[in-house]
Amino acid sequence: MPTTSSSPGLCSWTIMGCSVRLLQLLSTGVASSLVASVGTQRVGVDNWYMFFWCFCYIVTLLIIIVEYSKLRFHFSSHWYNFPINYACYAALFCFSTSIISATTYVPFLPQGPTRNHAITATAFSCIAAVAYGTEFVWTWVGHRPRRIITYVHTVHGLLKLLENFVACIIFAFISNTSLYQHQPALVWCVAVYSTCFILGTLAILLGLLYCDNWLPIRFPVSQLGLTLFSVLLYISALLLWPLYQFIEDLGGQSQRSSDMTCRDEFTTYVCNWDQRLAVAVLTAINLLLYVADLVIASCLVSDRLHPRIPNSLYLWSYYVV
């Protein structure tokens, strides 16, 4: 694998980096503070908004402290791998939170200060998404001319990030435990989502170590095994979740109108049937991502076994988007 020299991009304490990071800190802090000040969060999906905003605020603050104090040089010569991966995650989280909040939360709030605070918080969440996206693009563009290998630059890395991102959205919906506690098959599906998320996180960590030349094992082979296992698990979830949620003979509800929480007089948020449908759709989307990931991993292993190009160009020929 080619070696690289450190080039921090936005990791350096430049005017651009300082401005973007402070904007991230301000927008996530204001969003979480506005919602917390009026107590608009609810049990279930809405509590995840607060979690995402607070998490982004804390991690961004830690990154600023590490980079401003030059502590990043004590962690790794390739510290920039962490900020760019985090910026990608944070941009996706803030963007999805803004969309979900604007469509499933704000419209059901009564007119008044609570609604105004929620609208303002959603707007600041959009600003945060733009700020994190700016950091991601800025760092990506800054690294490409120097041919610095970061895991998020690779097709495999991007797919892993998307898989875990979709899994986090699924977790937001299944935080409503009434969706699955009554049926062991649905509990299995929740176990599948959790297991695959853990495996995906492990794969990302292995990828970061591999790109830093820290991993002695055959990384593409291990990734292929993890991805194949995840595909099999997701296939079982894609079959079981719709069957036990929407087939009446198996205890499901085929019609939205049959769900008491979806009737107009009770609907003040996304009802249970809508959440069940959202999880089914997200499961199918994630399965497609895992299948694409499996194809990429298979090509990488095949090329390792039957190399057609110089080994020094291996990552760039298959990984770089």
Automatic annotation (TrEMBL):
The chain crosses the membrane at residues 48-66, 86-106, 118-141, 161-179, 185-211, 223-244, 277-301. GO terms for cellular component: cell-cell junction; plasma membrane. Residues 12-144, 151-302 form the MARVEL domain. The keyword Ubl conjugation does not apply. It is a multi-pass membrane protein. The keyword Protein biosynthesis does not apply. Keywords: Membrane, Repeat, Transmembrane, Transmembrane helix. InterPro entries: Marvel, MYADM-like. It comes from the Eukaryota. It is found in: Membrane. Belongs to the MAL family. This is MARVEL domain-containing protein. It comes from Muntiacus muntjak.
